Structure formats: structure tokens, C-alpha cells
Amino acid sequence: MKALVICSGGFDSVTLACRLAAEGALGALLTFDYGQRHKKEIDSARLCAERLNVPHLVMDIANIGRQLGGSALTDDIAVPHGHYSEDNMKVTVVPNRNAIMLTIAFGVAAARGLDTVAIAVHGGDHFIYPDCRPEFIRLFAEMQARALEGVGEVALFAPYVEADKTAIARDAVRYGVPIADTWSCYEGGETHCGRCGTCVERIEAMALAGVVDPTPYLDTEYWQAAVARVKACSQ
């Protein structure tokens, strides 16, 4: 395998990149600028590529992103705080984001002679994001096999799609991921807020995995209340 990793610069995708690098299967990183407010993640992806000594391709699709309005990630809409299993997180959906990125990634991989596109979607994303679910990944891979028929053979590798973020946290330790240099927060500030869905999920996963999280957060306590609230509602 020589993989093109869709790498946002976040904890999940950087862990996947480090895993593939350790296995000698990393070809390049592909990062998308889709007009997200948390552009700091692009710098984290660039740093990851430098550390792993692979090409870093940055694709500017901000014009497309401006047409995918209504999301707290791209519009002037407050980023919701809480756990990802809460309905208010649906405002963070960017319509078709993964479908668009994967379509571009498959074309780039085929053009560069890489045989795999790798993406770090995981089970914790299923409730909110339809283009992170196993059925989407399976059908997208089938569609791309037909789209590239006679042009190139490119597989889709999504090793965490049936796992949760805790598994990714364990892999982060296993593969020596510089956790503090990854960026997850949706708020777009200089320090992780500790309250948005992706911050809460990140802190929770590392706590469950028994991983020491060196990331600075503005709020280090909120995640426990968010997790407790969700557990109470599910009982």
C-alpha cells in the first residue's frame, strides 16, 4: 500500500498518517481548505507532513465551501458546546464534505500513482455525519472503482470506521503521535476551547484510553459534565 491520507491536521487523521508511516505505507498527505473557521488545523497537517517527510498537498476549495452554507464550521454561526451525541451538533455538518474531499482525493491518488486513499472517519462520527458511516464508505469505494475503471486501481482505507475514538487514542500512543501538535477545536481560537463537540470527544477518548493528553484547553472540566449529561439522557 502507498496511501494518500486525507489529513485535516486533527488528532484522528494525524494518528492515521503516523500509523501508515510506521508501516511504510504513507505516500502523501492531502489537506483541504474549505473555508473552515478553524484553519489552524492546516498548519498542524503541514507540520505532520514535515515530520513524516512526505509531500503535503493543500487543496483550496474555499469557493465550494462558501456554497455549502448553514454550518457552524463555515458560517457566522455559534459553534455548539457539548457531546457529539447531542442533536445540537448537527449544525456542524458541512453538506457532502467527505464525499467532495474523497472524490478529489481519488483523482489525485490516481494521478500520482498511489494505490490507496486513507481517511480517519470513526464510529463516534456516525450519529451526526452521514458521510462518515460504514455504508457510505462501502458504497463510495464501489463507486470509485467504477469511476476509475481502466484508469487506475485505488482502494479506500478507513480502519477506524467501525471503531471509536478511544481506539485512535491508543494508536496515537503506539505510533508516537505528537498529540499537542494536532488541532481539533472547531472554535478557531489559539487554544483548544475544551467545550465544543470535537474537544469534548478528544478529551473523553484519551481519558478512556488512559492516555496523558498534553493539549492545553481553556476549559479542562466541562467535558465531564457533557459526558454525564448524555449518559443521564440515555438512561
From TrEMBL:
<keyword id="KW-0067">ATP-binding</keyword>
<comment type="function">
    <text>Catalyzes the ATP-dependent conversion of 7-carboxy-7-deazaguanine (CDG) to 7-cyano-7-deazaguanine (preQ(0)).</text>
</comment>
<feature type="binding site">
    <location>
        <position position="193"/>
    </location>
    <ligand>
        <name>Zn(2+)</name>
    </ligand>
</feature>
<comment type="pathway">
    <text>Purine metabolism; 7-cyano-7-deazaguanine biosynthesis.</text>
</comment>
<protein>
    <recommendedName>
        <fullName>7-cyano-7-deazaguanine synthase</fullName>
        <ecNumber>6.3.4.20</ecNumber>
    </recommendedName>
</protein>
<keyword id="KW-0479">Metal-binding</keyword>
<keyword id="KW-0436">Ligase</keyword>
<keyword id="KW-0862">Zinc</keyword>
<feature type="binding site">
    <location>
        <position position="199"/>
    </location>
    <ligand>
        <name>Zn(2+)</name>
    </ligand>
</feature>
<comment type="similarity">
    <text>Belongs to the QueC family.</text>
</comment>
<dbReference type="Pfam" id="PF06508">
    <property type="entry name" value="QueC"/>
</dbReference>
<dbReference type="InterPro" id="IPR014729">
    <property type="entry name" value="Rossmann-like_a/b/a_fold"/>
</dbReference>
<keyword id="KW-0547">Nucleotide-binding</keyword>
<feature type="binding site">
    <location>
        <begin position="7"/>
        <end position="17"/>
    </location>
    <ligand>
        <name>ATP</name>
    </ligand>
</feature>
<feature type="binding site">
    <location>
        <position position="196"/>
    </location>
    <ligand>
        <name>Zn(2+)</name>
    </ligand>
</feature>
<feature type="binding site">
    <location>
        <position position="185"/>
    </location>
    <ligand>
        <name>Zn(2+)</name>
    </ligand>
</feature>
<keyword id="KW-0671">Queuosine biosynthesis</keyword>
<dbReference type="InterPro" id="IPR018317">
    <property type="entry name" value="QueC"/>
</dbReference>
